[in-house]
Amino acid sequence: MLEVRTPKSERARRELGKRAPKLVENGKKTLILQGTKTSNVLNTVLTDIYHLKRGTAIKYSRRNDNIRPFESGGETSLEFFSLKTDCSLFVFGSHSKKRPDNLVLGRTYDHHIYDLVEVGVENFKSMDSFSYNKKLAPKVGTKPFFAFIGEGFESVEELKHLKEVLLDLFRGEVIENLNLAGVDRVFVCTVLSGNKVFLTHCALRLKRSGTVVPRMELVEVGPSMDLVIRRHRLPSDGLRKEAMKTSLEKPKKKVKNVSHDAVEGKIGKIYIPDQKIGDMELSYKAKGLKRERREAKMNKETSSNESKKMKIDSE
C-alpha cells in the first residue's frame, strides 16, 4: 500500500491548492535541464531560452545521467522533476558523437510525458552576438508574434508537430484581451528543407508612417539557429482525447460575504465601520432648536410685560 501524506502546514496546503485541477488552469512553466554531456553551443542555447522565458522557467545546472528520452525507463527522472517543479513543458539538452548539439522539446500531461520532438542545433547565433539597442531586448510579460513561413507546416507531420511545440513553448500565458503596446517581438520560423527549420527572434520597431497606423520594422536580436528534426513522438489518440477535454461550466465569480441557506435563502453580511458620532460636526440647524428659542423669547417677553404691569399697579 502506498502511504498518503497530508500537508501539515498552511503553506503546504496553499501550494497543493495551486496545483489542484481548475476550470481555468495556471500558465505553463518550462523546465530547462541538461544531460551527462553538453557542448558550449548547447549551454548557450539553454541560457538564451531561459532568458526568453524569464519568470516562467526553472533551469537546473546539475548534469543528469538518468534522463534518456525516447527510451523505456529513461523518462522517470524527467517526470519526477516535472512533478517537483510543477512544469508542463521541458527543454533537455545533450551532446554525443551520434547526435551532436541535441535538443529535446516536450510536453507533459498530469506530469507524464505527452509528446517529444528531438532537433539538432546548427548555425547558432546567441543574443550577445547581435549589436542592437538594449531597449529592444524582450521584456518580462510581453507577448510575441509568430510567423511560420512554408507549406511544410501544414502538410509535413514532423513540421506540424514542431509548430505546436514551439507555440506552446514561447507564447506564454493564454489571455483574452491584449494591449498592442505589449507586443514587441516576433518569432520567425522558415522551412529550409523537408526537415530543417530556420528559427530567429526579432524585435518590433515602430516608425512614423504619416498615418495613424505606424510602420513596423524587424530588428534581429537573437537567438537564431537552424533546427534539424531528428525524432519525434506523438501522443496516442486516447491520451490526446483525454488531454483536450474542456469543461462546459464557466467559472463563477466569487461573491464576498454572501451565503445561501435552505430555509432563509440568500444571506448577506454587511460590515459597517465604527461611527464616531461625538466628533461629528452638525452643519445644519434643527427646526426644533428654533422653536425652543422662539418659545423662550415669548416667555421672556411675557414675564417682562407682567413685571411692568405690576410696577404700574404698585404706583
UniProtKB/TrEMBL annotation:
Residues 28-238 form the Brix domain. InterPro entries: Brix, Rpf2. One of its GO terms (biological process) is ribosomal large subunit assembly. It is found in: Nucleus, Nucleolus. It comes from the Eukaryota. Residues 306-315 have a biased composition (Basic and acidic residues). It comes from Aquilegia coerulea (Rocky mountain columbine). GO terms for molecular function: rRNA binding. Its main location: nucleus. The keyword Nucleus applies. This is Ribosome production factor 2 homolog. Residues 291-315 are annotated as: Disordered. Keywords: Nucleus. Coiled coil: none annotated. Belongs to the RPF2 family. One of its GO terms (cellular component) is nucleolus. The keyword Secreted does not apply.
